Amino acid sequence: MNFTKASTSLFSDITFGKDPQSGQWEYMEPTSLSINLLNVLKNIFINEFLTVNDGTYLDEYGEPDDWIEIYNAFPDTIDLAGLFITDILQDPLKYQILEGSPLSRIPSHEHKVLWADNQTDQGGLHLGFKLDSREEQIGIYQVGSGMIYSLSYSHDFSGAILRRLPDGSGKRTLLLQDPDRGGELGK
Q: Which fold has domain 44-176?
């Protein structure tokens, strides 16, 4: 059975229950009077991020915003809808990726760019926070299974992209913004 504790969460349809795999108390989808079953997403990575955009990469409004690229290493399409992304690991529920949008889906071995511009009125791929160029944490959190992926940095990455090569694995490398990449994200 699922026993829940009272939660002061500002989000509807979220409860605080015990994860059947880890035994830890986690935020999860309500499963009143039934066993907690989790559809855990794995193999998604924060593949690249940029903290001070010099204008090489523009969002759909022509703005040079900070961005985070998510990579799907899973063999099937995944949907980010309902997941949370944060820049404070102690606040894993900071921003929920909107549900019901085809924009939140990532095909197998593809990328999705989320704009860290604190302009959520611009659409479902625009996050409710900006990135700090000198020191930051970035995490993807799934209710019921915890932190899927996180990273922290404490170095000035102004105007540079920190990326994983090859995608989804390997060592992080620093890349200066390169107009020769064609200004295309997710490639």
A: Immunoglobulin-like (2.60.40)
